[in-house]
Inverse folding.
């Protein structure tokens, strides 16, 4: 056999070996899942009873992307989630809800806090999206007075009550101008006393009594949200208490609510002046931009 023939023979063997190896290789599998990444700030720790859950809206129906928690620093326990690639490709919106930690209901709760449409691969999340709270609260306004109308007509300790109303020439009027909330949410008033938030009651309307009178006296209060801090002081506090120099707050709370403290959404805050006078109308500041959570989702 000539050198040329030997070379051709060896080349043929190498080719056959290469072909055999190629035929033995398994084809690369087609991906069946796709990653969803969350970049969200401003959320708060929900405690052990509740979690956050993400949802993508596919063909008009919610598909869960998974649950996560948030620590005291606002850090998400998980930011990347694997979903069916077809669902990801066809998702038109992302929604974030608050769910019971042990949840037998496969559908989202009414406590939807953030949402946004996908534009390409990105969804910009906002509380104002129609699938969430439907407003950013930036147009909300508030007024309040200090007074203790439930004390039976006594003129002492008048600075120990806060009522979210204003005094007009025609008498008391609603002091809060707040957007209507969707199902699953309520407003709550607060007086922050020496660092301790004390609830003045939950409500959904700026007119009419709120849902609590835990600290008030025996007389009826005005038909507006508010509370006299006269009795049954929480541990560590003493009532009556002068609210001059303290802080009053209107928050937005999930329903149900397992926390004795205000939720992260605090659209109105009033810093009560150190020389505040009872039965005088004071303005609250809009705090929505500082407390509204925001974020993006990428698929």
């Amino acid at each position: 056999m000539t050198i040329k023939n030997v070379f051709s023979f060896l080349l043929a063997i190498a080719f056959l070996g290469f072909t055999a190896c190629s035929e033995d290789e398994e084809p690369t599998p087609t991906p069946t899942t796709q990653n969803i990444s969350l970049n969200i700030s401003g959320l708060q720790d929900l405690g052990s009873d509740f979690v956050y859950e993400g949802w993508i809206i596919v063909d008009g129906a919610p598909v869960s992307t998974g649950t996560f928690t948030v620590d005291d620093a606002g850090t998400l326990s998980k930011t990347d989630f694997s979903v069916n690639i077809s669902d990801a490709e066809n998702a038109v919106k992302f929604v974030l809800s608050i769910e019971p930690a042990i949840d037998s209901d496969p559908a989202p709760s009414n406590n939807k806090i953030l949402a946004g449409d996908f534009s390409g691969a990105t969804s910009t999340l906002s509380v104002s999206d129609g699938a969430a709270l439907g407003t950013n609260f930036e147009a909300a306004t508030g007024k309040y007075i200090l007074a203790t109308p439930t004390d039976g007509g006594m003129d002492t300790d008048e600075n120990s009550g806060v009522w979210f109303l204003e005094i007009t020439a025609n008498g008391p009027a609603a002091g809060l101008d707040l957007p209507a909330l969707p199902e699953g949410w309520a407003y709550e008033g607060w007086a922050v006393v020496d660092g301790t938030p004390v609830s003045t009651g939950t409500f959904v309307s700026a007119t009419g009594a709120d849902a609590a009178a835990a600290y008030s006296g025996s007389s009826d209060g005005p038909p507006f949200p508010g509370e006299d801090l006269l009795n049954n002081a929480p541990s560590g506090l003493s009532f009556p208490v002068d609210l001059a120099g303290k802080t009053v707050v209107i928050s937005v709370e999930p329903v149900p609510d397992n926390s004795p403290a205000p939720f992260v959404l605090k659209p109105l805050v009033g810093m009560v002046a150190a020389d505040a006078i009872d039965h005088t109308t004071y303005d609250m500041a809009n705090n929505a931009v500082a407390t509204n959570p925001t974020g993006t989702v990428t698929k």
In short: Residues 141-291 form one domain. Residues 3-24 form the longest helix (22 residues).
